[in-house]
Amino acid sequence: MGAGVSGIILGSLLKKYLNVNISIFEKRNQLFNNINGLQLTPNSTQILDLINFPEIFKKEEFLSIEKLKVHDLYSGELLSEILLKFNQKQKYISINRSLFLKNIFQYFKLSENIVYEEIKDIDSQNNEIIVKNNKFFFDYIILCDGIFSKLKKNIADQSISFSGLYALRGSYDLTNDNSSNIHLWLGENEHLVNYKINNFEISQYNYVWITKNLRNFPISVQNYDENNQYLHEMFKEKFSKKFNFIGKTKSISVWPIYKTKNIFFGYKNIFCLGDSSHGFIPSRAQGASQAIEDAYVLFKLFEKNNLNQKNLTNQRLRRIKRIIRKSEKTIFIYHLKNSLLKFFRNIFLKIFSNSKIFSSLLNRDIFNFKL
Ligand SMILES: Cc1cc2nc3c(=O)[nH]c(=O)nc-3n(C[C@H](O)[C@H](O)[C@H](O)COP(=O)(O)OP(=O)(O)OC[C@H]3O[C@@H](n4cnc5c(N)ncnc54)[C@H](O)[C@@H]3O)c2cc1C
C-alpha cells in the first residue's frame, strides 16, 4: 500500500529476486511531480546497489557528497567541515526525489503492478484490503502509506504528534558549479541546509529551512502545503540579503514535521514499513534511508521464509530507536539558544573540523548497516 520510498524499493526487490505476484496500490495519480531533494546515506545506497543503482542512474543524475560544511547562520562563520565520504565504495548521495523514484519505477516496470486506487481500509482478520467497497485477499499486506497512515487504524494506535518544527523547502538552478558539499547553517531554534541534487550543466539545488518560529503563522499544519506565498515572502525578507540563492527560488513548499507516537511493525500478516511504522524528525536525513532498510529486511525475511512480526521487530526495533534518539539529540544541538552551550558546541566543532576519526565516529552507527 503506497508507492513512496519503501513501497517502490520493496516492489523492486521482490520483482528482481523473487517470483511472486505483487500489486502496489497508490492513491495519487501524479506520482513523480516534485523537485524536492533527498539525501541518501551509505547504509541505504548499498541496498540500492542490489537493485542496480549504477545501471539505472546516469552519473549526472545524482551528486556524490564529500563533506558537510557547518556555518553559523547569523555571522556566516565556517565552524567545521565534517567528512561524509571515507572511501570510493561508500556512497553518500543527494538526488531529486521524483527522479529517484521514477527511474526505479520504470526500470523494474512497476507500471505492470500499480493500481491507482486509494485503499479505504483493511480487514485484518481476513487479510483483505477494501477498495471502492470491494474486498481483495492477499497473503501479505505491507503498509507503506507514509506518516499520515490511516490504514493502521484497526490494528494499532495511529496517532502522530506535531514536532513543533516546520520545514520550508525551496529549489533553484545554477550553472557551472562544482560543489559536492552539503552546507548547514546553525541558528537559534532554526537551521538551514542547502545542497545540489544533480550534476547537469544547469544543476538543481535544494534548500530546507527547519524552524520552530512559525507557531503564529496562518498555515495549515494538517498536510504538506505546496507553494505557500505568505511564507515565501517572509523567508525572502529574512534571508535574501544573506543568501543570494533565495532570489533564484523557483518553488517553495511547507512541510510541518510530524512523528509517530509509537513504533509499530504490524499485526499477523500485515506489516508496516517506513514512516507508517516510525515517522521521526529528519535531522540526520534518515527517513528515506530507514524506509529503504525496512524494505530490505522485510524482503530478506520473506526470501528466507522467515517473515513474521517477531523477526521483523527483532531486526529493526533497536536500530530505529537508536536513530530516533540521535535525530532528536541532533536537532537539540543544532538549535541551541544558550550562549554558553553554543560556545562549547562551536569550539568542539572547530577542534574536530576535518578530523577523519571524529567524522567517522559521528556517523558510524548510522552508516554501518550490515547486509
Ligand atoms: C522536510 C523533509 C525533508 C526530508 N529529507 C530527507 C532526506 O534528505 N533524506 C531522507 O532519508 N529522508 C528525508 N525525509 C524523510 C522521507 O521523505 C520519508 O521518511 C520517506 O519518504 C518515508 O517513506 P515511506 O515509504 O514511508 O512514505 P512515503 O514516501 O511518504 O510514501 C507513502 C505513499 O503512500 C501513499 N498512500 C498513503 N495512503 C494511501 C492509501 N490509503 N492508499 C494508497 N496509497 C496511499 C502516498 O500517496 C505515498 O505515495 C524528509 C522528510 C521531510 C518532511
Keyphrases for this structure?
single chain; 371 residues; alpha+beta; FAD/NAD(P)-binding domain; eight-stranded mixed beta sheet; three-stranded antiparallel beta sheet; 10 helices
Can you characterise this structure?
The chain is α+β, with helices and mostly antiparallel strands. It has a domain at 5-63 and 96-160 and 261-332: FAD/NAD(P)-binding domain. The chain has 10 helices and 19 strands. It has helices at residues 5-17, 42-50, 53-56, 97-107, 229-239, 275-278, 287-303, 309-334, 339-351, 356-367; strands spanning 24-25, 37-40, 62-64, 67-72, 78-83, 93-96, 114-115, 121-123, 128-131, 134-137, 141-143, 160-175, 181-186, 190-196, 202-211, 225-226, 251-260, 266-267, 270-272. The strands form 5 sheets. Strands 5-4-13-14-15-12-17-16 form an 8-stranded mixed sheet. Strands 2-6-3 form a 3-stranded antiparallel sheet. The protein has a 3-stranded antiparallel sheet with strand order 8-9-10, with no helix packed on it. β14 and β15 (202-211) form a beta hairpin. α1 runs parallel beside α7. Flavin-adenine dinucleotide is lined by residues 1-7, 25-28, 38-39, 118-119, 144-146, 150-151, 167, 169, 208, 255, 257, 274-276, 282, 285-289, 291. Flavin-adenine dinucleotide binds at residues 1-7, 25-28, 38-39, 118-119, 144-146, 150-151, 167, 169, 208, 255, 257, 274-276, 282, 285-289, 291.
